[in-house]
Amino acid sequence: MSQVNVIGAGLAGCEAAYALANRGIKVKLFEQKPENYSEAHHMETFAELVCSNSLRSDMLHNGVGLLKAEMRKLGSLIMETAEETKVPAGGALAVDRELFSKRVTDKIMAHENIEVIHQEVCHIAEDEYTVIASGPLTSSKLVEELKRITGEEYLYFYDAAAPIVTKESLDMDKVFFGDRYDRGDGDYINCSMNRDEYEAFYEALISAEVVPLKEFEKEVVFEGCMPLETMAKRGRETLLFGPLKPVGLKPQGAEREPYAVVQLRQDNKEASLYNIVGFQTHLKFGEQKRVFSMIPGLENAEFVRYGVMHRNTFINSPKLLNCRYGLKSNPYIFFAGQITGVEGYIESASSGLLCGIYLARKLNGKEVVELDSATAIGALSRYVSNGTVAQFQPMNINFGIMDDLGYRIKAKKSQRNMMKSEKSLALIEEYIEKGYNL
Q1: Tens digit of each residue's pLDDT (9 = 90 or more) over 117-172
Q2: Are 30 and 7 spatial neighbours (Cβ–Cβ below 8 Å)?
Q3: Alpha carbon distance 305, 275 (integer Å)
Q4: If pLDDT is split at 50, 70 and 90, which confidence band does 196 have?
């Protein structure tokens, strides 16, 4: 029986290991926790959600909503577990992060074809099948090893995690429950600001102290995870079109929308913890307490976790990888997850799933049929392996990297996106019916 080493028990590593194991491949899954932790991880369990507990939109006219639907059809471990542990989040899919991580861990540990080895990997055997899913916080020792086997220097950018507060510490008389455009059952806690409150908050935010970077570090921020203060410094009204956007949110009985709205999203099943949506930050902890307590309703908020910022590592995938997430220079070595330049929880998991499916087919002596860019999961794999990309940056799934419909149509963008989704899901069904997923 064939065997594969999988390095890293994050979302991508767990998905890859599970996909391989379910197809009869023996897997050695290496995870450095609990012996070693990165600066952003603190739980012993697998598939830890470091930043938000949201897996983003579940709507099919949204790229990540389509990607989730494809993954469900392909037998995703992460999607299965997310459904089991979801918490209310309107039109999005959010989970109880601790329960989610525990359930994934239990399923991995119970699988007869997976052996878990708690050990930091510092050497890659170049003649053994290996999936490197060490994540954006790959240890310095492994980074040096990856430099050796690829001959490449590594890029990096900065990612950030939002603060979490206790519900009981909020002033419920100053907030209201509701979802943007009423999409949901009033799952978010919303903090309204008038113009004067926003102006005071803005001035405090842009003048607050941030954690100084080390001399050798250069801040390169991915747009999708930009620190709040960095975004604010782009312009006085920038936040009003981002995380403090009031559009579609109006307190019951109010005649108009507030000037600005800060949203809090449920973070656990018990609804005792809420994270401040879009408030990933590089501010010092004391400054976070001072500035964020200016938000109406958060004056006495208890912060159980402050926002943090950390370096994320990813490889120059367009030069190094093929669309199976395999290293072009070595047929034994594969990559999956954010280290490939896919950005986001779901995108990371999808790369592990697809890599696992492809590699299992290869090792079982079956035809490997590659999904193309008419599907979301195929489009991601082809984006990161597109050798024509000159300035490679991390990418969330979006309809822009997918194939056009192939014909012109006069319709709203959301309608065109729905048509792309319908076409994509039909192709996934066909892929499954032909047995290419087995």
Answers
A1: 999 999 999 999 999 999 888 888 998 999 999 988 766 666 667 899 999 999 99
A2: yes
A3: 9
A4: very high
Residue 26: its H or E element: strand 26-31
> What is the band of 406 on the pLDDT scale with cuts at 50, 70, 90?
confident
Please give the single-letter amino acid code of residue 115: E
Q: How many CB atoms are located within 10 Å of the residue 183 CB?
A: 14
Q: Six-digit token pair at 343?
A: 């950005």
Angle value at C-alpha 307, between 165 and 53, nearest 5 degrees: 65
pLDDT value at position 215? 47
120/34 Cα distance (integer angstroms): 10
The tally of CA atoms less than 13 A away on the side-chain side of residue 159 is: 22
CA–CA dist 375, 149 (Å, integer):
31
The label of the residue with tokens 């312009």 reads: 235
Amino acid at 343: E
Tokens of 173: 């008389």
Quick: pLDDT tens for 364-382.
Answer: 999 999 999 999 999 999 9
Burial per residue of 390-423, b for 16 or more beta-carbon CB atoms within 10 angstroms, e otherwise: eebebbbbbbebbbeeeeeeeeeeeebbbebbeb
How far apart are the C-alpha atoms of 5 and 377, rounded to whole Å? 23
Residue 57 is inside which H or E element, if any?
Answer: strand 54-57
